[in-house]
Amino acid sequence: MNFLRKQLDKIKPNFDKGGKFEKYAPAFNGIDTFLFVPNHTTKYGAHIRDGIDLKRVMITVVIALLPALIFGMWNVGYQNMGDGKEFWDYFIFGAIRFMPMIIVSYGVGLGIEFAYAVFRGHDVNEGYLVTGLLIPMIMPIDLPLWMLALSVIFAVILGKEAFGGTGMNILNPALVARAFALFSYAPYMSGNTVWVADSVADGVSGETILGSLAGGTTPAYSWFDMFMGYVPGSVGETSVLMILIGAALLLFTGIASWRIMISCLLGAALMGLLFNAIGSETNELLNFPWWQHLLAGGFAFGLVFMATDPVSAAQTTKGKWIYGFLIGIFAILIRVVNPTLPEGMMMAILLMNVFAPTIDHYVVEGNIKRRKKRLQKVNA
């Protein structure tokens, strides 16, 4: 690493002000700060010293994603090859199918990020470190790579850079990518075949739990299968156990909001209980046990890694309770009422992303009014 540090320091003057490649300084600085901790300090004015910065936050989230990622790649092999194989047979099969998706996601996304940084003359933001991994983790394993690339382009340009880049976007970029793919290439985003790539085992079905329920049939998977992750689905969403391990890290480090997580669970449980009380002879989703809704599909993954996005979520304390609760309500509502969208979590989070600023606005206005009333009582 010392050798690499010396080489970067040797060519750095070319990217400084007045240097030959001054215009491309943002791209160089982005690579430099990604590889090494910045070696400069604030020279003017007051500044805060803290052990956490944007890069450390993003790397922590990536680490929290690793359990679900590793298990998801194993599960891709397991769902395709069936029983009777070794761990590494499943894992290598899944890794071979999934790694190109990661390469395309990071290659296309970071390419756009660097281009925008050079064009605008600002430093490259670290926000895409997480988004670049989230996007392939919520896509079907059989999605053609060119469709994935177009989804990434749409998400980065219109879902993020159009608003000013990292920290300015009102929608979660990863979910924007999935929404674009869903509405643009629906046959590749739903059905029984997209979740199982090139199956080599006889009798393997790629039908997801929510897909079978929406089709009026009872799923062949138990709640234990759903919790452990032995079910078809995208790489990130199958194992609730692995997702909970990541959630524990995010909560321990204070990066994710426990208020959003708990309120979202409460909202989903309430709506699930309501639908169970209503019941139906034709809609199996109405009869699906409320607590199993919390294990099925992408609910857990969306709850931990999407709903808690610190940029697109509500910022006020009370607003987080309202925001999370409504996500849980709408996620189950969309699942049950709209048979064309049996997942529901993605749309619920995007919907509440739009209303998060409004929620915060009214929370703040309510606090101001209460303080004014207290002030009037004091002065009376």
From TrEMBL:
Its cofactor is FMN. Signal peptide: none annotated. It is a multi-pass membrane protein. The chain crosses the membrane at residues 57-78, 90-117, 137-158, 170-188, 230-253, 260-278, 290-308, 320-338, 344-364. Its EC number is 7.2.1.1. Keywords: Cell inner membrane, Cell membrane, Flavoprotein, FMN, Ion transport, Membrane, NAD, Phosphoprotein, Sodium, Sodium transport, Translocase, Transmembrane, Transmembrane helix, Transport, Ubiquinone. The modification FMN phosphoryl threonine is found at residue 208. It is found in: Cell membrane. It catalyses: a ubiquinone + n Na(+)(in) + NADH + H(+) = a ubiquinol + n Na(+)(out) + NAD(+). NQR complex catalyzes the reduction of ubiquinone-1 to ubiquinol by two successive reactions, coupled with the transport of Na(+) ions from the cytoplasm to the periplasm. NqrA to NqrE are probably involved in the second step, the conversion of ubisemiquinone to ubiquinol. Composed of six subunits; NqrA, NqrB, NqrC, NqrD, NqrE and NqrF. PANTHER family: ELECTRON TRANSPORT COMPLEX PROTEIN RNFD, NA(+)-TRANSLOCATING NADH-QUINONE REDUCTASE SUBUNIT B. NCBIfam families: nqrB, PRK05349.1. Belongs to the NqrB/RnfD family. This is Na(+)-translocating NADH-quinone reductase subunit B. It comes from Lutimonas vermicola. The gene is nqrB.
